[in-house]
Design a protein that fits this description.
18 strands; 432 residues; 7-stranded antiparallel sheet; 23% strand; alpha+beta
């Protein structure tokens, strides 16, 4: 393209050379132009530069102007190619959207709803198509703005004219997109109604989410940050809470919490802690008809808890790596103990602690059948074995009760996902 100087680019180049080849003199405020004769076979621009006084400056200017014109010519060719491509996409979109996925095709073949073209999935609705086309138009407009900035920096009349032309083309094309998509939607009232309904639902959900956020904010303003409970009303693979920080390496631990559930069979997974290479580093789960279990490094101990009666219960589990000794407490009373639970294996750091779901992979792989259903509150972790008296104080809400030194129950320590809700909670209200 750079070797061919034709059309307006060559004329502008020639005009620049001739203009620079002339000189002017000012006599009494009037300007006269003096033209220099040039031999017939001599290059005009070369002669102009030889006869001009500031030869190097004029030569540089001519070269810059020539480069600018060539760049603008490349730009308009690119823009024309983009417009042709977009017009072709519009035509394909209109033709492919005229038939439903199950329509009969010539030769007895049926439309493949999974087929794709440069527009993406052809089974997508007009609203999706419009969004994708709008992105393409936005890209064009961005390129046009870049061209405008370039023209301002080079003060090029040619570039300004080109900008106006392209802006007009893009505006017309955008109107064409809107017109065609509207005509497609008018021909499919069911699809239009579905789009409108989805829009109303999304608007309602957004409004509801905002109202809930405002209510939660008001609750946080009026209560201590630890006086709350998490509610998981359904078995899903998307409702959970994530603890913002990881656990440290631990050679002993105590985990305590308040639980309420009437789910059957099994209340699910109140919490799970996974580390790279081990999804079952520390898990509390009651799944199916099995009793509640504590897993450490994928080793299992069965716990003698009975909690799915729809009432609040306080449970604690202690463990030490020495001989893998563990103890289980319900409502302040020791219910069972054992040993050889992952002996001499310290709890590893740099993991992810999830409330309400069992992790099959680090931070994911949730199974709805293993999800916790019910209410959870006052979840605390210590890196030591609490005494019987300390656990009793927790279960009876004694003023001597302590909070976890590894993890303490605070709203600011959790991120909540999937519709799990928070409510004001006073741990020992049911004991009064």
């Amino acid at each position: 393209m750079r070797a061919t100087r034709s059309g307006i680019s060559w004329r502008l180049f020639l005009f620049s050379c001739l203009f620079l080849g002339s000189s002017s003199q000012d006599f009494g405020g009037q300007t006269q132009f003096i033209c220099t004769s040039v031999p017939k076979d001599m290059d005009i621009c070369a002669a102009t530069l030889q006869n001009s006084v500031p030869g190097e400056d004029l030569k540089t200017t001519v070269m810059q102007l020539r480069e600018t014109v060539l760049q603008q010519k490349e730009t308009i060719m690119n823009q024309k190619e983009t417009i042709r491509e977009l017009t072709s996409k519009l035509a394909r979109c209109e033709s492919q959207s005229g038939a439903e996925p199950g329509d009969a095709r010539p030769g007895g073949r049926r439309k493949d709803t999974g087929s794709k073209n440069t527009m993406g999935d052809v089974s997508r609705g007009p609203a999706d198509t419009l969004a994708q086309l709008s992105q393409t138009l936005q890209s064009l407009k961005q390129r046009l703005e870049n061209l405008e900035q370039f023209s301002r920096s080079n003060n090029s009349v040619q570039a300004n004219s080109l900008k106006d032309l392209l802006q007009s083309k893009i505006d017309d094309l955008e109107k064409q997109v809107l017109s065609r998509v509207n005509s497609i939607e008018e021909g499919k009232p069911g699809l239009r109604n579905e789009t409108e309904q989805r829009g109303r639902v999304e608007s309602t959900l957004t409004s509801l989410h905002q109202r809930i956020t405002d209510l939660e904010k008001g609750q946080r303003d009026n209560r201590p940050l630890d006086k709350f409970q998490l509610t998981f009303p359904l078995r899903t693979n998307y409702m959970y809470a994530k603890v913002k920080k990881s656990l440290p390496e631990m050679y002993a631990l105590t985990v305590c919490m308040w639980l309420k559930s009437n789910a059957s069979p099994g209340v699910g997974t109140p919490f799970s802690y996974a580390v790279p290479g081990q999804a079952n580093e520390l898990v509390l789960i009651e799944w199916g008809n099995n009793p509640m279990e504590i897993l450490i490094n994928d080793k299992v101990a069965k716990l003698p808890f009975l909690i799915n009666d729809g009432k609040w219960h306080h449970i604690c589990v202690t463990w030490t790596t020495r001989d893998g000794v563990w103890e289980a407490f319900q409502d302040g009373v020791k219910r069972g103990s054992g040993e050889n639970l992952a002996p001499y294996h310290p709890i590893k750091p740099q993991g992810l602690l999830i409330l309400g779901q069992e992790q099959d992979t680090l931070g994911g792989g949730f199974d709805a059948t293993q999800a916790f259903v019910g209410d959870l509150a006052n979840f605390h972790i210590w890196d030591r074995k609490l005494s019987v008296g300390e656990i009793y104080n927790l279960a009876t809400c004694s003023s001597k009760a302590q909070v976890g030194n590894v993890f303490a129950w605070m709203e600011t320590s959790l991120d909540i996902y999937g519709g799990a809700s928070k409510w004001t909670f006073e741990a020992c209200r049911q004991l009064n």
